Task: structure prediction
Amino acid sequence: MKKTAFSQFLIFFSFMSSTAFSLERTIDQKVDALLKQMTLEEKVGQLTQYTGDLAATGPITINPNKQSEIRNGLVGSMLNVLGTRYTRQYQELAMQSRLKIPLLFGLDVIHGYKTTFPIPLAEAASWDLDAMELSARISAAEAAASGIHWTFAPMVDIARDPRWGRVMEGAGEDTYLGSKIAFSRVRGFQGEKLGGIDSVMACAKHFAAYGAAIGGRDYNSVDMSERTLWETYLPPFKAAVDAGAATFMNSFNDLNGIPATGNSYLQRDILKGKWGFKGFVVSDWGSIGEMVSHGYAKDGKEAALAAIAAGSDMDMESNAYRNNLAQLVKEKKVPVKLVDDAVKRILRKKFELGLFDDPYRFSDPEREQKALNDPAHALAAREIAAKSIVLLKNENNLLPLSKDIKTIAFIGPMVKPLRDNHGFWAVELKDMDPGYIVSQWQGLQNKVGGATLLYAKGCDFEGDNKDGFAEAVAAAGRADAVILSIGERWNMSGEAKSRSSIHLPGVQEDLVKAIQATGKPLVVLINAGRPLIFNWTADNVPAILYTWWLGSQAGNAIADVLFGDYNPSGKLPMTFPREEGQLPIYYDHFNTGRPAPDETAVNYVSAYIDLKNSPKFPFGYGLSYTTFQYSDLKLSGTEMKRDGNIEVSLNVTNTGKVAGEEVVQLYLRDKAGSVVRPVMQLKDFRKIKLAAGETKPVKFIIDNSKLSFYNKNLEYGSEEGGFVLMIGSSSADIRLKAEFELK
Ligand code: NOJ
Result:
């Protein structure tokens, strides 16, 4: 009986694998057959991407011939064309071309399409991988129903300098957390396999090291050691490849003197070579042409040569391929096989998406209507928005507020706006029903409609006008409790939104002082796309929630947390500095030869004479309305061999009065190595939910992969010796410790 089942399994398995094989071959064969029919100009066309004119996400070049070029088969893809009607119009042009190769439609679906989810940095604060996968899944479903085949997300750049405006778009500073999130987001966008009608291609970006722009100034150069590149910046990209990311985007920066777009080491040796990436690489907007400004190419022709040689497959908007590539092939400066390889990579994806079977399969207006109005999407957005909120301070358990409070003053520039809750990169906004965005004011009304709610704006996000202070103070004076919502306007973090000062902008902190002076119970909400500096508020106000930019359901989610219908569980994915002078700042730094023994020591130790080393709020930090106790740490052994492992177990107890979630974080320190090792590194975590009084066991496995790093010869592996294991509630709140040895 057993044998029969086994042989049936074998027959089934070999059938499955041969089907998969033949399917693979069929696509390859089809690609080859099509390639044979293509002229050189048509091939270059497949490598050319233009932006539509509905929205510009970069400096547009005017080209009145786009439409005729599409008709002539000279364009492979469009970005910023959206909606079933509009995408269909463009696809119909492509269907008039000789070979009828469908266009790919790409768009920056960064944190939602119609339903806007929290900005990616906020979602990262949830440490909830399933929730992030779901948010990407829903974004994909909406975009795919609206004619889009491809999102330029996730951004998996590690970012350690919050002056860089694009920190809002990534998962923060940590490589381990960032890699896990990269994997989940790619899976979310693409589903199990490309070709699903509710999936889009993901695009891991920006390859590579864009997040380390010097001084946090966008588009700036990056200068980085090989070890840091491999150990800190590349792993999330590798995770994206492992998750099956269909595409990669290169980046604007130069890396150690070579623009990423012309960087063969990055794109050919690492990505397509060592990692075996089978998808295609798109340039970041005009990054091919920009190699002229970098001073790496003397003109567009040299730039095109450098880019194709380095493995950049598709030229977004720079026209360098369109204007030069065919000529370069004719002059024998570019072997046609380089062009063929790039074309094949792109055609393959078009086949996998099913576009050759039906070029309009993503353009069904009925499906679009349904997907864009699915109430389940709003529910999911509300849940993940609540999970993204971080409780920074809660003196005397001021929060949650009672729903019986009679009069609440809701003050601040963020109370009534809609758009600002979306944050940067809200793509489908133009046709959006404004009622679909729940403002913070609306959210409060929905929650405590029976209370008397007072409103005053107080001041703007920016500027020095304090005319509104008196009205705000008066409203606070009449209230039993005050909620003050301040922060950054939607376009103060994002692409090209670097700030040299990341203090709360304008006179907002003065407004906090004025309201605090009324003596009323005060809760401050800080809405922003990056870690901000707000030392006075942090030191003086009793309750602070970091609410980032939470998307369409911001108002409801914030109200859920304010009144305890959701117990906050977010943990910071980035270190919050005390002052810009500490930047870049991150928890997994080296110890140095002269570590400061405490916060007061300055003499001949690694410290500032005018500032503490410690951050204002550390990586992994976030409070709850309940408390958690960690106990009973046990290791299955204190010695480990490379092919073995150590099982780590502990108990976590909810010691408070309400249910809550805790992110149990596991950090390791390698005590000595052939190269210096960080003081601690996140190596695992679990997010668990506990009823009041409940105790749950938590288990981790330490194996060789968790002990490995790039040694002095840049080889990846572990080294024998001692390790410190730290388990805690944040990187600065270690509750349990143990040591073990790799033998
Ligand atoms: C430039 C940005 O850097 C990139 O992330 C984005 O996908 C493209 N513009 C397209 O909008």
Notes: The first strand starts at residue 48 and ends at 51.
